[in-house]
Amino acid sequence: MSESAQFTSAIDHSVPGLKKLIKNHLKFSLARDTQTASRRDWWLATSKAAQSLIIERMIATQTAHHRTNAKRVYYFSLEFLMGRLFSNSLYSAGIFDEIELALQEMGLDTETLRKEEYDMALGNGGLGRLAACFLDSLATLDLPAVGYGIHYQYGLFKQEFRNGHQVELPDAWLTYGTPWEIVRPEHSTEVQVFGQVENVFDDRGNYVPRWTGGKKILGVPYDIPIPGFGTNTVNFLRLWESRAPEEFDFEAFNRGGYGEAVREKNVSETISKVLYPNDKTESGKELRLVQQYFFVACSLRDIFRRFRKDNEAWEDFPEKVAIQLNDTHPAIAIVELLRLFHDEYGMAWEKAWSIVTKTFAYTNHTLLPEALEKWSVPLFQKVLPRHLQLIFEINKRHLEQVEAKWPGDVHRKRVLSIIEEGHVQMVRMAHLSVVGSFSVNGVAALHTQLLKAELFPEFDEMFPGKFNNKTNGITPRRWLLACNPRLSTLISKKIGTGWERDLDKLRGLEQYANDPDFQSEFMAVKHANKVDLARIIKTQIGISVNPAALFDVQIKRLHEYKRQHLNLLHILALYRRLLQNPDLDIAPRVFIFSAKAAPGYDLAKCIIKAINSVGTHINADKRINDRLKVVFLPNYRVSLAQRIVPAADLSEQISTAGKEASGTGNMKLALNGALTIGTLDGANVEIREEVGEENIFICGMTVEEVTALVKKGYRPHDFYMANEELRAVVDWIGSNYFTPDEPGCLRMLCDNLIYNDPFLVLADFQSYSDSHKLVDAAFKDKPRWAKMAIMNTARMGKFSSDRTIGQYASEIWKLDPVKV
Ligand code: H2P
C-alpha cells in the first residue's frame, strides 16, 4: 500500500455547524434568505454544503495520488447513469444524520429535498448504471480512478404515455445547472475530425503520413466528484463538452451575417448534445462515431498531461495507466493512443503497439449480434482517415500472426480479421478491442463462457488467458442504504453496521430467517415500502393498488430478449382463468412494469402499448374484484427504480437463456428481499448458487435446450397450436379486444409471436406459467415467504460491486489502493 497523506477538515461537521453552512450557501451562493427560499433553494444550499466537504477531500485525494505517483485506472464509458446524487453524497460525506437533524431544526427534511433534483440520466440501462456503481466502489475501495465520458446536454429521453403509446420528450437536465459539477476550462483541449492524410517530411527527414485539415473541436471538461463511503477518497468523473474553438466568426458577423457567424459554433456543439438511445436505426451514425472519437481523444490528451507531470519515460505508461473500455463504444481509443505515440511522438510501431496493448482492457456486455458495433470503411474514411489506415496496418500485422499460427487457414483469417469483407467493408469494433487489449472480460460466469465458446472461440485459442470473467455487481450504498432506509435500519439493528462496506456481513441475518419476530419485522418493512409505492402509483397514474397483494415487478429496458411480452401472456392467462373460474384461489397480484423503448424500436413500443391496453382493461374489470392489477409506471429512471426496488415481492428475470449477459436489476431486487422468478441466464445462475435452489423460482429452457431447439428449427406456430390457453391469449392480443379504438395496432406483436418469435417466448410459456403457480403457493404461506425473502437479502454479498471492482483491480489493472 502506498504512503498516506494527512487530511483534516476545515469544516465544522456538527449539526449547528452544518446549519450555518447551509444558511451561508443560501445567502451567498443563492442570494436568498430563509423566509423566501423555495424548496429548490434549500435543496441547492444543502447540496452545496455537502459538496464543500466532498471537495475538501477531493483536493486531498488528488494531492495524495499525485504525490505518490499512483497508478490510476481510467474508466472510459459513453454512458454514466448516475441518477440523483443528493442522498448518496450525504451518506458518503458521512453527514446524513447530521444534515437530517439540521434540516429538521429548520422545518425541512432530506426526503422532500431530494425530489428537487433532476436525475442525471446519461445512459440507457444496465451498462450505464454499472459504470455509476463502479465509480462508487472505486472510491470506496480507495482506488485511484477517473471516469471519462460525455457531458450530454440532453440525457435519455423523458417518456410519457398517450393513449398507452410511448411518447419521447427531451430530457433537458441541465437547464438550471447542477450543484455537483465543476467546470475546468484550464484543462480544455482541442481535437480534430474529418480532414485527410498527406505525406509530409517529419523533423527527422522521414516522409511520413500525417492527418491534416480536419475540423477542430474544443473539449471542455466538467468534473463530478465521486466520494467513497466511509473513507476520505474522492475521485471524479470528467465529462467532456464540445465547443467551437472560436466563439464565433467575427468576420462573418461584421459582414452582417449573425446566422452564418454562429453556425460553426452550433455544428461543434452538436457533438455533446444528445445521448444516443440504444437504437437499431441507421440515422446519426456519423455523429455517434464523432462522439466516440471526441471523448476518447480529449481523455487521452488529459491522461498524457497527468502522466507527464510525474513521469519521464513513455515505457512506464502501462505502469501508471490502465484504461478500461466499457463495451466497444470507446474502442477507437486504442487507435488514437497508437496514433499519438507513433505519428505525433515519432515512436516506432512495435514499441507504440506494445505500450498500447499493455494499457487497454475491454469489457464485453452483450452477445447479441445486432449490438456488436461495426462501422463502414467509407464512414471511417470520412471521419477518421488516418485511423482507418492505422486499423488496416494493425489488421495486417494481426493476420500475419494468424498465418504464423495457422498457416493457410483462410477460414480462421476471415473470422479473426478486424475488417469484415462484403458489399461494403466494415470495421468490427469488438475485434479491434480484443486485438488491442490485454484483457477481455465478460460480466457473468455464463456470459464469459459463451463469449469464449460461441462469440470468440478462435480468439480464445489465439490468445489463451486473455479472456476472463468479472461478474457484475451493484453498490449497496445506493441499492440498499439510500433506497431502503427502513430495511437498512432493521439490518443494522440486528447485525450492526459495517455491511455497507462489507456486504458478506449480511450472512449474519441467516440465523434469524426462521425467527417469527424477525420475519414480521422484515415483512413489516416490505409492507411499509409497498404502501409508499402504492401512493406513488396513485399519484402518478391514478390507479389504486392493494399493498397486501403480491407486487410482481419487471423493470428494465424494453427489449424483445428481456421478454416483457412473456410476462404479459401470463397476465392474460391469469385473467382468463379468473373469468372462467371466478372462485379460483389466487393471491391478489399487482404487476408492475417500468421501461423505456428505444425510439426507433417498433416492436418494443408495441409491447408497451399492449401492456398498457391490457392493463387498462383488467384494472377496470369489476368481475375480478381487484385480484389483478397491471401498472406501467412512465419514465423509468434510477430515482424511480429506487422507489420500486424496496417494494417488490417478486423480481421478473425472464430473458431467453443465453441472451442477458448478466443483469443487475436481478441483484438489486434480491438484495431488497424480492424473490426471483427467472431463467438460467446471466447472473441469475450465480444468484441461484448463492441463495440456494429453494429460495428462487427457476423456469424456462437452459442455454443447451435453446440451442438444440433453434438448431432443430424452432416453429412457434407448433407451440401455439399445441397449447389451448396459449393460443387463446395470443389471439386475444391480436383481436382488437383490448384496442377497439385502434384496430390492428397489436397485430405486429401477435404475428411476431406466432410466426417469428426469435426469443422463444411461446416455447417457454408453459414452464413460466407453471413456475408462477409455485410462486402463488409460496406467497400464501407467509412464514415460508418471509424466510425466503430474508435468505435472499442475507445471501447477496457476492453481488456487491466492491467485490467486482476488487477483482478488476487485482486481476486486471494491478492497482493498489491509496489511503487519504
Ligand atoms: C447490458 C446487458 C446486461 C448487463 C449490463 C451491464 C448491456 O445492459 O444487457 O445484461 O448486466 O449491460 O453489464 P442493459 O441490457 O441493461 O442495457
TrEMBL record:
Protein name per its UniProtKB record: Alpha-1,4 glucan phosphorylase
Identify its protein family: Belongs to the glycogen phosphorylase family.
Which reactions appear under catalytic activity for this entry? [(1->4)-alpha-D-glucosyl](n) + phosphate = [(1->4)-alpha-D-glucosyl](n-1) + alpha-D-glucose 1-phosphate
Keyword Transferase listed: yes
Q: Which cofactor does it need?
A: pyridoxal 5'-phosphate
**Gene Ontology biological process terms, A to Z:** glycogen catabolic process
EC top class named in words: transferase
Q: Which GO terms describe its cellular component?
A: cytoplasm
